[in-house]
Each structure stands twice: as structure tokens, then as C-alpha cells.
Design brief:
Blueprint lengths: L1 H40 L12
Protein name: Teichoic acid D-Ala incorporation-associated protein DltX
Keywords: Membrane, Transmembrane, Transmembrane helix
Pfam family, one: DltX
Length: 53
């Protein structure tokens, strides 16, 4: 009985750890993409908003 509870606890702990690591990696990748797109948007543009006047 105790062994079965311990094994179930360990499986849940491993599952929760996997979910946490997966979400962390996903959010990190999303941040990298956003930083890349932000940098890419400023490649050819001017820095002053009223550069046509």
C-alpha cells in the first residue's frame, strides 16, 4: 500500500516537473521570437516618427 502511494506521488511529481520545464522552454522560445521580430522591424525604418516632414 505505501509503495503504491509513493510510486503514484513520484509519477505525479515527474509529470508536474515535465509540464513546468515544457512551459518554461515554450515561453523562452516565444520571447526569442518576439525579440527577433522586434529587431527585424527596425532594420530599414527611420528612428524619427515624422521623417517625411
Amino acid at each position: 500500500m505505501f509503495l503504491r502511494l509513493t510510486k503514484a506521488y513520484q509519477n505525479e511529481k515527474i509529470k508536474n516537473t515535465g509540464i513546468f520545464v515544457g512551459k518554461t522552454v515554450l515561453y523562452f522560445l516565444i520571447l526569442l521570437v518576439l525579440f527577433y521580430l522586434y529587431h527585424y522591424s527596425h532594420v530599414g525604418g527611420g528612428s524619427f516618427i515624422y521623417n517625411q516632414f
